[in-house]
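Reviewers asked in the last cycle whether our approach scales beyond single polypeptides. To address this, we selected a multi-component target totalling 256 residues and predicted its structure end to end. The input consisted of the following lines:
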Amino acid sequence: MNAVGTHLLVEFQACNAETLNDLKGLRTALISAAEEVGATVIGDTFHQFSPHGVTGVVAIAESHLCIHTWPEYAYAAVDIFTCGDSLTPHLAVERIADYLESTDHQVTEIRRGPRSPVATKAAVTAQA
Amino acid sequence: MNAVGTHLLVEFQACNAETLNDLKGLRTALISAAEEVGATVIGDTFHQFSPHGVTGVVAIAESHLCIHTWPEYAYAAVDIFTCGDSLTPHLAVERIADYLESTDHQVTEIRRGPRSPVATKAAVTAQA
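The resulting structure, written as structure tokens, was:
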């Protein structure tokens, strides 16, 4: 497979509900996590829902990070797609888990790229 | 499983390379596809790479659409995450396939949500 990169889909459970509803804090956390793993942020857009919940997408030169939060479930869906092999997206998962105070998260890792019959999938369950 | 929504990861192969390098056209196509499936666009950010390639992320009230293109491989990585069951994200896949003139694409479908031990995965290979 001619892999372009790694896409991590992360289900963050048992998070701090207030943190999940704080747009400014989430934006800072996602951008910091991106930068810490060596990504170059090239744009972002975040939105606060009423009565609660935040959506944020961060474009990076190496693809993207996205977050969608459901404070009522103490849950956030995050995905981190990094092309190339020079970045360490799993480190971003750890940083975001710490920020959200998530005690339980599951990672699904998918290798993406051209001319792959179906993306290779590997599921990893992590207990923080 | 307490599903929040459906995340489609699509590998578009054998696309029109010029289309893959046209930021303005890709932005219009993604936003149109989002609106056609009933999503509400709440923000977007697109970036043109040199010498070629485009990254775009579109935040919707129901989650997001992202595209990353590699004209040199005639390839685009797209993902469409829609929460709830009222939208029809597979229709967006078809619209984007038509726009990219992709003759071959693979879809990986992942159900996402809180308290799922690992996201349910179903791979679908489509030959346009």
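The domain at 5-127 of chain A is CATH 3.60.90.10 (S-adenosylmethionine decarboxylase). We regard this as preliminary and will revisit it once experimental data from Aim 1 are available.
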